[in-house]
Write a structure and sequence with these properties.
By secondary structure, this protein is mostly beta strands. 1% of the residues lie in helices and 48% in strands.
Length: 352
């Protein structure tokens, strides 16, 4: 018999997703308490790019003319093509794609009365590239800080520029798109996001996949959820994961340290149990010119209850990174982590 430690469970309808580690709350850095995240929701500048010529024409280096609300999707805000019998749906079954030839749907194939037999008919349809843009005002208090951009739920592939500097790309359908913007000078900057929702983002991706198919209304283009800019010290907690041990009523916290100073340093990593301030654990840490790693084992104490669907007990800890006297200005970051503890055993191929 084998034992598996499970630290994060997500139940949704009939599907169960089980992770092997506990991640920071929503997998995002919280930043220092003196630098709360900046909410970027609101009106953004916008442009459709049907011919996909925006990169070559350097649209990130100009001011876009149209406007759109984010978080949001372009199809629900009047952009895209009207629905018709020739709409290029993303679907797998030929019968689904030729629905308008079936006699039972004849009454719903005339302009102005198009009703598609899918679970979620969008108000409009668009497969292609769109650009989203807004100005950023970096406050003086963020001078010398490491700046992080969170796009909680974009679709599908995003590419980010700050001014004319390309930051990178991400095409995850299951996790936030996060970008390290580096150190930005205080004052005005232009943030541009290119979003591509075509199936060519991942060649040969199955068109009946629930995350991409029109059958579940999953071909939208836009950014949903949180859109945030946060600042931390230039030496910061880049990642924090928790690996619980039910038998020992403990957990190992593993931390990845980022470093933009270009200089090595030393400090202390401290973990505080949010339910019992007396449960404090700390270890000395060091980082090289690009970063480092650290780990420490913590006791969960009397609050280390096991999670189950009837008693969904969650643990709350705070991870703090502090530089020593020589690095106190460059390393001062913290992160809140919420996780659950669960032990599952297996026998042969079965969970028991």
């Amino acid at each position: 018999m084998r034992t598996i430690q499970i630290s994060a469970l997500l139940f949704c309808a009939l599907f169960v997703v089980i992770g092997s580690v506990a991640r920071a709350d929503q997998s995002t850095p919280s930043g220092n308490s003196t630098n709360p995240p900046t909410d970027l929701s609101g009106q953004w500048r916008f442009a459709m790019d049907r011919d996909d010529g925006g990169v070559k024409a350097e649209w990130f280096n100009r001011e876009l003319a149209a406007h759109i609300q984010l978080p949001g999707i372009l199809q629900s805000q009047g952009y895209g093509d009207e629905i018709g019998i020739d709409t290029p749906w993303v679907a797998a079954l030929p019968r689904d794609m030729r629905w308008y030839l079936l006699p039972q749907y004849k009454a719903y194939t005339t302009p102005g009365n198009i009703k598609v037999p899918y679970l979620s008919q969008p108000p409009r349809h668009y497969l292609g590239v769109a650009w989203y843009q807004r100005d950023l005002e970096i406050p003086a208090a963020w001078q010398g800080k490491h700046i992080h951009l969170l796009l909680e739920r974009p679709r599908w592939e995003t590419t980010v520029w700050v001014d004319d500097n390309k930051i990178g790309s991400n095409n995850s359908l299951v996790a936030p798109h996060e970008y390290e913007l580096g150190i930005l000078t205080p004052g005005k900057h232009q943030l541009t996001v290119r979003a591509d929702n075509r199936m060519s983002v991942v060649p040969k991706y199955r068109p009946d996949g629930h995350s991409v198919s029109d059958a579940l209304g999953a071909t939208w283009n836009g950014i949903a959820g949180r859109i945030e800019l946060s600042a931390t010290s230039p030496v910061w907690i880049d990642d924090a994961q928790v690996f619980p041990n039910v038998e020992k009523n403990s957990a190992t916290v593993r931390v990845q340290i980022g470093n933009l100073t270009g200089k090595p340093g030393t400090g202390t990593l401290e973990v505080v149990n949010g339910e019992d301030e007396l449960l404090r654990h700390s270890v000395p840490v060091q980082w090289d010119t690009v970063g480092g790693t650290a780990a420490l084992e913590i006791r969960l104490g009397k609050f280390g209850h096991v999670w189950d669907e009837f008693h969904p007990v969650l643990q709350h800890i705070t991870v703090k990174l502090k530089g020593d006297s020589r690095n106190e200005k460059s390393a001062d970051d913290s992160r809140q982590i919420t996780f659950g503890v669960r032990e599952i055993t297996t026998k042969d191929k079965d969970f028991i």
